[in-house]
Design a protein that fits this description.
Layout (H helix, E strand, L loop, with lengths): L1 H25 L20 H42 L1
Helix pairs in contact: 1-2
Pfam family, one: DUF7314
Keywords: Membrane, Transmembrane, Transmembrane helix
Protein name: DUF7314 domain-containing protein
């Protein structure tokens, strides 16, 4: 179980840090206003800007779904398989 926890934690950290970095670059107009969830600060995004914005959303969902997968889904599957094996024996 410790390896699932660390894999989920790694997904959460990598995804969270990637999301904060990209959102900090593109969504922080000033230090007084909204920072990570503020409005987009560039008017005409280039191709690389669009790729970075997509990667920011991808990092966010990687963090959420990766942590949930390793902390909730895989342990539930393991417990269910153990339950089925004990029931059939």
């Amino acid at each position: 179980m410790a390896d699932e926890f660390m894999k989920g934690f790694a997904c959460l950290m990598v995804g969270g840090l990637g999301w904060m970095t990209i959102k900090g670059w593109y969504n922080t107009p000033s230090f007084e206003g909204a920072q990570l969830t503020g409005e987009l600060t560039i008017e005409e995004p280039t191709t690389f800007d669009q790729i970075a914005l997509f990667m920011g959303d991808a990092f966010f969902w990687f963090a959420v779904l990766g942590a949930l997968t390793f902390w909730v889904v895989l342990p539930l599957i393991s417990e269910f398989q153990t339950y089925l094996n004990e029931r059939s024996a």
